[in-house]
Amino acid sequence: xxxxxxxxxAKTPSVQFSPDGVIEIKGRSIPENSVEFYKPLVDWLExxxxxxxxxxxxxxxxxxxxxxxxxxxxxxxxxxEAIHKGKNEVEINWYYEEDDEDMLxxxxxxxxxxxxxxxxIEITD
Length: 125
Description:
CATH topology: Transcription Regulator spoIIAA
CATH class: Alpha Beta
Number of domains: 1
Distance between the termini: 36 Å
Helix content: 25-40%
Order of helices and strands: EEEHEHEHE
Shape: globular
Largest sheet: 6 strands, mixed
Strand order of the largest sheet: 1-2-3-4-5-6
Structural class: alpha/beta
Number of helices: 3
Number of strands: 6
Low-confidence stretches: none
Strand content: 25-35%
């Protein structure tokens, strides 16, 4: 499997999806077309799911995301949930800024929808 590496922009997050089991999404997610941006990520996870590592570590550190991105991020999490259901360990680290209640709540909302444990990690400067 080829890794995915996307440089972040003002509108899209930086993405690192590595076949060695480390997945990272960082930055702002307000792309013109969220479905188009996230589709390769969802497709990659679909392929990864057929032969995942024993442990997959996921780091999500978003400053902001729009409504259309939130649906696509949920699609990413649903693929991770399928890996988790396949008896493979999935660790999701949800990072949020110290005063960002909205981002903390967003992480809690995702955790309540998908059945994978989240670790909420507060970023303090």
